[in-house]
């Protein structure tokens, strides 16, 4: 086997962040549960946060969902995109998702860097996170614009590649011929995974879906009700 | 009516050119085992008789170069270049950034290739690869079928991806086609018919060859996509315009989305409740001052 | 019947002197930390006024508490469950720090370090968030004693129900009046903060009803802040977790009153257990507004009723706990005497902190140079109060004026009765008919007088034993080992995650 930079990036590297992600996220959850928080700064500044946070989160959730769908159901995606107008709708919505999240992210970055109160609650890792996300989303939008149609070639090239990674037989051939911009985007995704458990990004792992299924009130007993406080019986022993 | 006539006319042109191409190629020796090997190993970069590709046309190579030199060069072009051989360095410069890789060929195989090239050269014909031969002449209706394959409306039988994923052809959709690969509008201007057909059958480009390695186009599909690509030969590509439309629609949609979010949460608290109260009180105070000032003045005047 | 114990409170507003000692006690014990400087788990606000945070009672703005749907079911005013997840990226109704105040300190060191010069050195105020000099815009109790009335008192959300004429009178300089409302978390029976927490980090302790936020499960989504109509859940901007009053549970577990109770200068605070029927719970919060106070009283059980005692025993409440509930001053004020009323029952969280509405400086009627001591003259006070009864009813009985009027009349009856006994210048018939009107005999009025004016600490704070030693056993740990090895507090330091 010829060992190239591609082999390193796309064959070996993927497993490092994945392993880090899984092990560290669980370890942190169990050992340092206090550090799992959204770390929201809305309390310190709300108006600008709205302009940034809402588009960012909805945009990126949509886009990530799209990536996931294309990975899981490439055939269905291709079938859907086989009629030109459907393909266009698909691509335009994806682009909108990307642009919306990019605008939100840029706004969040500006807010974080320019507001004194927000800077007071910013640490180095927050800046790293912002840097990685800006690069990723920026590249993504650039790719969507210049290397069309992403949904289609993702389904035909990236989906099999990712599948090969998941199946522990990474097929570097598929990606090694892609333009460097796309390669950078893929590497960025691995970097994202790697920093996730070490950053505030962990809040996405504790997104509270279970809220939908729980009863409104929570009562916790330090011991089973009915078995406590048996002492103080005046008649006991008497 | 005119559409119909246009279609007919296009078909006629394509059929004509294909017939021509078939005429020149019939004789060829694809059955020759060395020919098949040549197609597999060399043809992605070299023609015999039909012009430069990534590398030089090999027609009459034996007449131009020394046989011993050729042996050495083919076996390891890189070491030849490294040794400072003038011709090798010149070739590398001419075809940069393409670089001919070292070949794992025995001297016997190289000899076979050289003989084969010589045979084709002497026959006065060009090398037509097996894949360059269409299985049947183009018929009316092929263009439409080819268009359907191109956009993916009709699935390729072996399951290969539709062309539009990566390629555009002027007018294929209102926003054009893919841009990861080449714009194929004038594919035929860049490639000969033979090459085009051969690319469709067994693409030699790195990405395509991998994508289609296990699911090549059927002969029928090759003819039809070929026919479609031929029919677009006369169009002028204008990728900038479709890209611009794409961006524009995207931006309009983005603005709409942002507006929607703003509308959805229009009742949100802004600037702070306390600040509002202070602003209102200050405003009221100002107004009182003004009216007091006014009545004061009015009183003095009276 | 599902009998449970709730630690409940009564604040006697007529006795509060607005000294803020309670707030300071709490601050010193619990919230003197980065990110918590602005939190006042206990605060004392001036009424009329907008309180802390500004206009917290205005649920059209902040959307706290519950509302009753047209189907009679309760739902959170702020968000449905789906709406919670929808609004999780930016909470539309969350107050920001500007609605509280930006915590500040002064650069005292400058007073010493400034080189000699023509001017006096000053200690500039600096923000405790950014460390930079700020213009102080607000502080805790910024509207204390009606300070800044045009901004604050006039925007009191409770005044929307007061007539224009009364409002004008209210702010007439000579007549102007105010009273204090000390507030802590009400440790509600139907807490909306618990129901709104998407992480399920907030819970009510089964044993004593204290509402707590599990700091390790809180993810800082801040829905409790919005959902608590009393704004008694606070977001720590430094650690990224929400915090609230813990009713000093480490103190009550060891039989001590919470710090704010313990330190109260006016001795206005009463603390004791109530037994209630948990089965009646959602229903008691789902009645029309005017009946809410009665419904609240309806779920509280009589600790002398044998059926209740049996139910309590069945649920594991020991005889010593039940005995403590019998002596509970809260039970007396709320149920026996019907003097104490819940604050803003219309939020439907069933708060367990009750207030005795204040009589305030009485506007006695003077006739012929002598106080009018007839029945009409005395009771007339109630309707001629400087603060309109509509206003008090908004605060303490969800608009039902009858409850407030009764509580005020009863307090006047106590005064009249005691004056008759001690001074003897009142007409016995007038006093007797007053007593009849409030349905109380002399013994009851004397009891009220005693518990209001002369209570000992033991009478004010009757804390049922919590038997932590048994809880430890129930957790199936080795008690002796636990005693030797386990301390309180965090295993992980409460610092902001990255
Ligand atoms: S007062 Fe607020 S924080 Fe306290 S229990 Fe009630 S709803 Fe929760
Ligand atoms: S310490 Fe007591 S008297 Fe003083 S403000 Fe607090 S509640 Fe009122």
Task: Provide the fold topology.
The complex is a heterotrimer of chains A (238), B (302) and C (498).
Chain A: H1 5-12, H2 15-31, H3 47-72, H4 74-80, H5 84-114, H6 116-120, H7 124-146, H8 150-166, H9 172-176, H10 180-195, E1 219-220
Helix pairs in contact in A: 2-10, 3-4, 3-5, 3-8, 4-8, 5-7, 7-10
Chain B: H1 2-25, H2 33-41, H3 61-64, H4 67-75, H5 77-82, H6 86-94, H7 107-123, H8 142-151, H9 187-190, H10 193-201, H11 206-212, H12 219-231, H13 239-264, H14 273-301
Helix pairs in contact in B: 4-7, 8-12, 10-12
Chain C: E1 3-12, H1 21-31, E2 43-47, H2 59-62, E3 66-68, E4 74-76, H3 81-86, E5 104-106, H4 109-113, E6 125-127, H5 164-170, E7 179-183, H6 192-196, E8 202-205, E9 211-213, H7 223-227, E10 233-236, E11 241-244, H8 249-252, H9 259-263, E12 269-277, H10 281-284, H11 292-299, E13 300-301, H12 306-314, H13 319-326, H14 329-336, E14 341-342, E15 353-356, E16 366-367, E17 370-371, H15 375-383, H16 389-396, H17 401-422, H18 428-437, H19 442-453, H20 457-460, E18 461-462, H21 468-474, H22 479-485
Parallel strand pairs in C: 1-15, 12-18
Antiparallel strand pairs in C: 1-12, 2-7, 3-4, 5-6, 8-9, 10-11, 12-13, 14-15, 16-17
Helix pairs in contact in C: 15-17, 16-17, 17-18, 17-19
One iron/sulfur cluster is lined by residues 185-188, 191-193, 211, 228, 230, 232-233, 244, 349 of chain C.
What's the quick description here?
Chain A is mainly alpha-helical and about 240 residues long. Chain A is built from ten helices and one strand. The radius of gyration of chain A is 23 Å and the shape is globular.
Question: How would you describe what is shown here?
Answer:
With 238 residues, chain A is mostly helical. Chain A is 65% helix and 1% strand. Residues 234-238 of chain A have low confidence and may be disordered. Helix content of chain B is 58%, strand content 0%. In chain B, α4 crosses α7, α8 crosses α12 (219-231) and α10 (193-201) crosses α12. Among the domains of chain C are: 266-462, Alpha-Beta Plaits; 471-498, no CATH class. Helices cover 34% and strands 14% of the residues of chain C. Chain C is built from 22 helices and 18 strands. The radius of gyration of chain C is 24 Å and the shape is globular. Chains in contact: A-B, A-C, B-C. Chains A and C meet through α3, α6 and β1 of A and α3, β8, α13 and α21 of C. β1 (219-220) of chain A pairs parallel with β8 (202-205) of chain C, so a sheet runs across the interface. The complex binds iron/sulfur cluster (SF4) (2 copies). One iron/sulfur cluster is lined by residues 16-22, 44, 180, 182, 264-266, 268 of chain C.
